[in-house]
Design a protein that fits this description.
- The chain has 907 residues and is α/β, with parallel strands linked by helices.
- The protein is 58% helix and 10% strand.
- The longest helix has 20 residues.
- It is flat, with a radius of gyration of 34 Å.
């Protein structure tokens, strides 16, 4: 028996393939065979100076100080397995080797090296020996006689982002041929499944892929509808292997506010909200070191914002490649342009046959799309000239051709060609030799538009006011006017769907409809030319305002949240219209007031604050009740982002306005914020006491209970448990009288904290469990996150470290989604406390130091109520020694919030 090695090691994992089936079919023979197998594995490992540190069923885990020893053990094992009869059983083992650091603990090893080796073993086959790239680098000159390592290429392993270079051991006596490795074929991407085939563009694909290999930023330019997006997605799909961190599509068509671009990109890439809130610089910092392809689709309406974002990412992230589609270049240094040509076109030769026509991409596209809507359609000698004319006159623009092909279900090809000819003449002033590309697409849209009836045209124009789609009910409310009755909208909408101008996203009664980006831009242009824009915009705003106010989050927040999520783009459009519309300040304030609980509940504090600030600026300095509510909402969201100075200022303004208006009962709202954000404990408690005094004069028992609980919590934070207890007990008593489940849970949460600080861990555990269950039931993410964090501390006191870690991991995830820095830091402190309990002294010190530094950065001082978390620090110093303690502490203090959270989440 050899001592366990330390430092960087080579690990060997071995496992019998199909052992479950063999046990079921041959239990007696398997028992004897595995006894011999166990002896053989031990002999292979121990004769090569290895150490078996774990066995799980028929799986063996061994560590070696030297990579050649591990390889010799694998070769010894597989050679003996291949040569044995094993009681007439097809007994085969798969073996894998990987080298790297690991943490030794209680006779076992832990860390990413072991995790990766498990995944490597999983892709192998019985009788095969797989070697990682890291191990292969140590074996280049140490292979046994006759042995070679065959390069099997890069493979993506389950649950791991980085592909692994895999090698197979070939040696005399070992089988050499195996099925393909079982690595994951999926790549990290969000490219949508395409519902129609990709036709032609073979040369363009070659050109763009070649340029993409050499360019940091490649922009595909052409007019709308030319197929830029489809080509870019096809190229991106075929380039997946080149980008270990994935290929990510950011669809910009629904986005109208340039300021939201970093957030939109960050949301696609999974960047935490506080990073993307910092703009392009924060986004670049979060993506540093990643190797990915970012596809920015439809940049033209956000050209400046896209250019700024691209320039920042290119300068700060050397391994990121950008592929953009736009009607014009972004215009920044380092940009490579590719102008997308039209689909290949037939000439005017009247002798073209149906067979010769179909070699042209534009014709093939038309035929396939026409066949989809009219299965009997076929190219004939009779319609071939008209078909050739359509493709030529549409300049080979894919969208134009597809729209023309859709007409085949109602018009012969010859009539389509004839009407198209008239529309082009109208837009070019009679000149058919000089057709600017924008005019060509515009001509197509004019043609499609002019085929509509007067009522269809009016509805089509009005539909352009929607963003991100709409429902039938929305179309009926917004588009019905003096010319179109409400009862007509359904039929007219169905007609526009049939004519391929409107997309029916779902067929259900409550399904959604939408416009493609190009068609919507055309429809909006037509709307602007009419006398209807302001009236349609007001109806759109009023509909979503009424829906928003009708779906107030009380008492059930779930329908409200679901509707707001589905209609986010329309709500943004309504807000944008109202901000630009004269004399609409009241509507703007009503929109943000009705909207802010959604931003609060989903943790989208940045966007909420942006709209609230804009609404307050437009509203000016009125003394309206709506302004008072908006000030409170803005203060509350600022508080949630730990922007305490701004929150205090807004809450103070709100309180002053409430007092000026004589709204005594309403004053308790800004007092909530002031009681939480004012740094001086005495002042904060004074605000809380004032809130309690106001609420004692009202019948709002639920609010009074919360106020009592808050003051009790503040006193607990100062270490005064004696003064806190009667307040918390009264809070629970009042909450029970209110019969409000959420208020009762809130008071119980404070009672649980009191129990924890008083070392009554059993009571605290029961109360936190109840609070967590209620928060989950209500979908209260913030309540869940804090309950999990506090419950983890209790579980540690009760000795259940596994449950404590699970709770802390979930709390980190929830706080991360909400962008709640204080919550993240408190969970980091919980992870540090857990590490200390698990005798992981260096890890505990790093986490404590990271939390300490982050509290300084974000000005979140440690309250006395949290100081017990740090009680183990002196013991950690003694356990590590002064030098190691100082080193670990320095490493922790150097971590950013993102780095600290990632470190805490490691195994």
């Amino acid at each position: 028996m050899h001592d366990p090695p330390s430092g960087p090691m080579t690990f060997l994992f071995a496992q019998i393939e199909d052992s479950t089936r063999l046990w079921e079919q041959h239990p007696d023979r398997m028992r004897a065979a595995l006894a011999s197998y166990d002896t053989l594995v031990k002999q292979a490992v121990e004769t090569q100076n290895g150490h078996i540190f774990k066995t799980l069923g028929d799986a063996f885990y061994a560590a070696f100080a030297a990579a050649p020893d591990a390889l010799n053990a694998a070769l010894f094992l597989q050679t003996r397995l291949t040569g044995e009869n094993w009681r007439q059983l097809p007994l085969q083992a798969r073996v894998a080797l990987h080298t790297g650091p690991a943490e030794a603990r209680e006779g076992d090893y832990f860390g990413l090296t072991l995790h990766r080796l498990n995944r490597l073993l999983a892709i192998g086959h019985g009788g095969q020996v797989l070697v990682s790239g890291a191990t292969r680098d140590l074996l280049a000159r140490s292979l046994p006689p006759g042995a070679v390592l065959e390069d099997k290429g890069h493979h993506r392993l389950k649950d791991l982002q980085r592909p692994e270079q895999v090698y197979q051991l070939l040696a005399p006596g070992l089988p050499a041929e195996f099925p393909p490795l079982r690595s994951l074929p999926e790549q990290r991407h969000n490219l949508p499944v395409q519902l129609t085939s990709f036709i032609g563009r073979e040369q363009e694909m070659v050109d763009v892929r070649w340029l993409l290999e050499a360019a940091r930023l490649l922009t595909i330019t052409a007019i709308g509808g030319a197929g830029k997006s489809r080509l870019a997605m096809q190229v991106a799909a075929e380039a997946l292997d080149a980008y270990p961190d994935g290929v990510w599509l950011v669809e910009l068509a629904p986005l109208s506010d340039p300021a939201l671009l970093p957030q939109t990109v960050g949301a696609v890439l999974g960047v935490r909200e506080e990073a993307s809130r910092a703009g392009n610089a924060g986004l670049a910092e979060a993506l540093a070191g990643m190797r990915l392809l970012l596809l920015l689709d439809n940049c033209e309406h956000l050209l400046r914002a896209c250019a700024q974002c691209a320039a920042t990412l290119l300068g700060a992230c050397p391994d990121i490649t950008l592929l953009a589609t736009s009607r014009e270049p972004l215009g920044i240094a380092g940009e490579t342009l590719y102008r997308l040509p039209p689909l290949s076109l037939p000439g005017p030769d009247p002798a073209l046959t149906p067979e010769s026509l179909e070699r042209f991409e534009s014709v093939r596209l038309f035929v396939e799309r026409a066949s989809a809507v009219a299965p009997a359609f076929a190219v004939s000698r009779h319609n071939a000239p008209a078909l050739s004319q359509i493709c030529r006159r549409l300049d080979g623009i894919p969208l134009a051709i597809e729209l023309a092909a859709a007409r085949v279900r109602s018009l012969p090809v010859e009539q389509i060609a004839a009407r198209l000819d008239n529309r082009f003449q109208l837009l070019t002033g009679g000149s058919r030799t000089a057709l600017p590309r924008q005019q060509t697409l515009h001509a197509l849209m004019d043609w499609s538009y002019d085929l509509l009836t007067a009522s269809e045209k009016r509805l089509f124009r009005s539909l352009s006011v929607f963003a991100g789609g709409w429902t039938l009910a929305a179309a009926e409310a917004v588009c019905a006017d003096a010319e179109i009755e409400r009862s007509q909208v359904r039929g007219l909408l169905a007609s526009l769907v049939n004519k391929s101008l409107v997309i029916a996203e779902t067929p259900e009664e409550a399904g959604r409809y939408g416009l493609s980006e190009t068609i919507q831009q055309y429809a909006r242009e037509r709307l602007r030319e009419s006398d209807e824009p302001r009236a349609v915009g007001r109806r759109h705003r009023d509909f979503y305002l009424q829906q928003l106010e009708a779906l107030a989050p009380e008492p059930d927040p779930l329908p409200y949240r679901a509707w707001c999520e589905a209609e986010r783009d329309n709500l943004r459009a309504a807000l944008t219209f109202s901000l630009e519309e004269p004399d609409s300040a009241p509507e703007v304030l009503r929109l943000v007031i009705a909207h802010w609980p959604f931003w609060r509940d989903i943790g989208d504090y940045t966007e909420g604050r942006s709209w609230l600030d804009a609404a307050l600026r437009k509203e000016g300095e009125s003394r309206s009740p709506e302004r008072m509510i908006a000030l409170y909402a803005a203060a509350y969201l600022a508080m949630q982002q730990s922007d305490f100075a701004v929150a205090e200022s807004l809450a103070a303004d709100c309180l002053a306005l409430a007092r000026e208006r004589g709204e005594q009962a309403w004053q308790e709202h800004p007092l909530i914020v002031l009681g939480h954000v004012v740094s001086d404990p005495a002042r904060a408690q004074a605000f809380m006491a004032e809130r309690i005094a106001i609420l004692r004069q009202t019948s709002h028992q639920a609010l009074l209970s919360e106020a009592l609980a808050d003051l009790g919590h503040s006193l607990m934070a100062q270490g005064d448990l004696t003064a806190a207890r009667p307040l918390v007990e009264e809070a629970l008593s009042v909450a029970m009288q209110s019969q409000s489940p959420s208020t009762i849970e809130y008071a119980k949460g404070r009672l649980a904290l009191l129990a924890r600080l008083g070392n009554d861990h059993e009571q605290a555990n029961a109360l936190y469990q109840e609070h967590l269950a209620r928060s989950r039931e209500q979908g209260d993410m913030l309540g869940m996150a804090f309950s999990l964090r506090d419950l983890a501390v209790i579980r540690m006191h009760l000795g259940d470290l596994a449950a404590a870690r699970a709770h802390l991991m979930e709390s980190l995830t929830l706080f991360g989604r909400l962008g709640n820095k204080l919550g993240l830091i408190r969970s980091l402190e919980g992870m540090a406390q857990l590490a200390a309990a698990r005798q992981e002294a260096a890890r505990a010190v790093r986490l404590f130091a990271a939390a300490e530094s982050l509290r300084e950065v974000y000005r979140l001082p440690l309250a006395p109520v949290d100081r017990p978390d740090y009680g183990s620090v002196p013991g950690l110093r003694a356990a590590l020694g002064e030098a190691a303690f100082a080193s670990a502490r320095a490493a922790g203090r150097a971590m950013s919030l993102e780095q600290a959270v990632a470190y805490a989440q490691e195994e």
